[in-house]
From TrEMBL:
The keyword Transcription regulation applies. It holds the Pfam family AraC_N. Keywords: DNA-binding, Transcription, Transcription regulation. This is HTH araC/xylS-type domain-containing protein. Residues 287-321 are annotated as: Disordered. Residues 192-290 form the HTH araC/xylS-type domain. PANTHER family: ARAC-FAMILY TRANSCRIPTIONAL REGULATOR, TRANSCRIPTIONAL REGULATORY PROTEIN. Gene3D superfamilies: Homeodomain-like. PROSITE patterns: HTH_ARAC_FAMILY_2 (PS01124). GO terms for molecular function: DNA-binding transcription factor activity; sequence-specific DNA binding. InterPro entries: Homeodomain-like_sf, HTH_AraC, Tscrpt_reg_HTH_AraC_N. The keyword Transcription applies.
Length: 321
């Protein structure tokens, strides 16, 4: 573990997250958090991101797999994914200190164009991975957070450090996953496009054959590659998007279960209730009542939620889960 780089990152987070909770920063795409206790799993949708814990530990769940990361490891999410996340190590005197940084696929593509000798992206792989964090990457993230000390430097310097961080991820142990989504014609890039379409149009009927044709794949090949990247079938992916948005609508906008079900594309309220219970463990009414009575678990959701802007028809960036 890079002790000096880690200590600088801890100090920078503590300076800019002096109180408990999660906050956006003046640097686009950068979110920092100070979480004083373990949390229950919180379901949400996360966009392509680099997540680092400087102190404590967190776990992410996707399709039955558990991804744990701590100060020695970084979590990379390369495509929009519906996940659950929780803090597993934190105390009031030694809180979990974490950073989440959105990664811009267009910047990844630019960097690939500047590195023609970059390795082949290989076959599609799961869009989330934990690997040891390298000292140079930890140093760059620490320098980015430290730029908040001097607001007048953000405009000229933040984009440069963001680009450096993206490059270091690209050439590091997790780089193959980024190359997959940015390499023209690669199967994973086609799947990433389909994922973005589903996130923007999740309330519409699932056009499986049309998406497969757009990806220039057979229907069976499309399903195979989609599951390789997300751990879910397209239909399972769509259901999770719908149910998480319905939860947000009930919690944040006061809709009842029937109204939320209709808004997210369900025609059958009973089917909605069954699938909601299967994902969240409770009926819609009981789940929302519990969340309103005990809102602490939602504090961590900002650390993962999208930062590229709100889709007009997709799950909102402000979803609390």
């Amino acid at each position: 573990m890079a002790t000096d780089e880690l200590a600088r990152l801890v100090a920078a987070i503590e300076r800019h997250a002096p109180s408990d909770g999660v906050c956006r920063t003046a640097i686009p795409g950068l979110i920092i958090a100070r979480l004083p206790e373990p949390t229950v799993p919180n379901a949400l949708v996360v966009d392509p991101s680099l997540c680092i814990v400087a102190q404590g530990a967190k776990e992410v769940f996707l399709a039955g797999e558990v991804y744990r990361y701590d100060p020695a490891h970084a979590l990379l999410v390369s495509v929009d994914l519906p996940i659950s996340a929780r803090v597993v190590e934190a105390t009031p005197t030694r809180p979990c200190l974490a950073v989440r940084l959105s990664l811009d696929p267009s910047v990844v593509g630019e960097l690939l164009a500047e590195c023609p000798d970059a390795r082949s992206p290989g076959p599609p792989a799961r869009g989330v991975e934990v690997s040891p964090v390298e000292p140079q990457l930890l140093d760059a993230v620490g320098r980015l957070v430290s730029l908040l000390d001097s607001p007048h430097t953000l405009g000229p310097l933040a984009p440069l450090v963001l680009r450096e961080i993206t490059f270091r991820v690209l050439i590091g142990p997790q780089g193959a996953r980024l190359r997959q989504i940015a390499t023209t014609g690669a199967p994973a890039q086609q799947i990433a496009r389909a994922i973005r379409w589903l996130r923007d149009h999740f309330a519409d009927p699932l056009p499986g054959e049309a998406l497969a044709r757009q990806a220039q794949m057979s229907l069976s090949g499309f399903h195979q590659h989609f599951k390789a990247v997300t751990g879910l079938s397209p239909l399972q992916y769509q259901k999770q998007l719908r149910l998480q948005e319905a939860r947000r609508l009930m919690l944040g906008e006061g809709l009842d279960a029937a109204g939320a079900a209709l808004r997210v594309g369900y025609e059958s309220p009973s089917q909605f209730s069954r699938e909601y219970r299967r994902l969240f463990g409770e009926s819609p009414r009981r789940d929302v009542a519990a969340l309103k009575a005990k809102p602490q678990p939602s504090k961590q959701s900002e650390l993962f939620r999208g930062t590229r802007g709100t889709h007009q028809s997709g799950p909102r960036a402000g979803a609390t889960g």
